[in-house]
Amino acid sequence: MNNDRLHTDLFTAALGLQAPWQVDDIRFDPDRGRIDFDVSCTSARLTCPVCNAAEQPVHDRKARQWQHLHFFQYKAFINAPLPRVQCRCGKTTQVRVPWANERSGFTLLFEALAISLAKHMPVRQVALLLGVSDHRLWKSLGTVVGKARKQERHDDVTRVGVDEKHVGRQGYISVFHDVDSRRVLFATKGRKQGVFKEFVADLKSHAGVPEGIVACSMDFSKSYQAGCQATLPDAEMCFDAFHLVKLANEALEQVRREESKLEPELKGTRWGTLKDAEKWTEQQSTDMHWLQRSGLKTARAWRLKERLRDILRAARSGEDPTGDLGRWISWARRSRLQPFKRLGATVR
């Protein structure tokens, strides 16, 4: 066996090819930074991709190219004249290659690497690393993810959560997730009532049962509440603790900002009032000890916020928060702090 045949046989095995596919030639161009593998299918008769009829004649061949994993610092490409089978079923169809998905310009291994990298970095950065355009990579990833989503089943989903997220120029999107398995179920543009109708349609398409949803967690959006009531009538609406604490932090900051106009010592204390005590810097610890001993409105607001966090923390460990929340609401409404009076009404 000559050296050329040895090399092509070696790369035929390295690419995982089996008869009738084989590597015919290897072209290395260091100036262009690439290596090309010319692959061919020598058979004149193949199985029809549509009806699986065996031994159907090859009608013609069309040149195709797929980008493969890099070989060291060099881009790698597979080139092949792709056969079309003329079958007795009346269809003339391109055969499927073993190294790539249908209609993809990347090999399976290239797509697998891209997906792995995209879990840890932006797609634009992945595209730069792999030497392709981000538009082309997005298109490929969309096809792979879409194919995988079609195989998902949501028949075991009983508790869901929904939240809004701002995504650059796309604006707001709504993301639905399974609370128990911690997986994303569905995402769509917008944050209005209609996103629930889209979610339910997608849930049904994956064998999910809307009547089986017993709880739905969300923020305080009236649109989300209306959407849940209209499409998931058996689901109990739950408002997650994160958004409640966020509202408490905003109420505290309103009190602190207004009072700092008359009490200059409050300037610079913002982050201390928002952080957990164990995360205070030395200066923040000093400031907060001073604040707690003062009779300022901000000190009362901070104690209200911290007490609410304690109640929610206990609820997460299984304690019934109803009584404690009732007392907290009374405290907030009697606090003479307008932002917390409003928050008390919201919690109630």
Commentary on this structure:
The chain is of the alpha/beta class. Helices cover 43% and strands 23% of the residues. It contains twelve helices and eleven strands. The chain has helices at residues 3-14, 108-118, 123-130, 134-150, 194-205, 222-231, 241-259, 270-274, 282-293, 297-316, 322-333, 338-347; strands at residues 21-29, 34-41, 45-46, 56-71, 74-86, 92-94, 159-166, 172-178, 183-189, 215-218, 236-239. Strands 1, 2, 3, 4, 5 and 6 form a six-stranded mixed sheet that branches. Strands 9-8-7-10-11 form a five-stranded mixed sheet. A hairpin with a 2-residue loop joins strand 4 and strand 5. The longest helix is centred in the last third of the chain and has 20 residues, at 297-316. It is elongated, with a radius of gyration of 31 Å. The relative contact order is 0.06. The model has no long low-confidence stretch (mean pLDDT 90).
Give a short overview.
A hairpin with a 4-residue loop joins strand 1 and strand 2. Strands 1, 2, 3, 4, 5 and 6 form a 6-stranded mixed sheet that branches. Strands 9-8-7-10-11 form a 5-stranded mixed sheet.
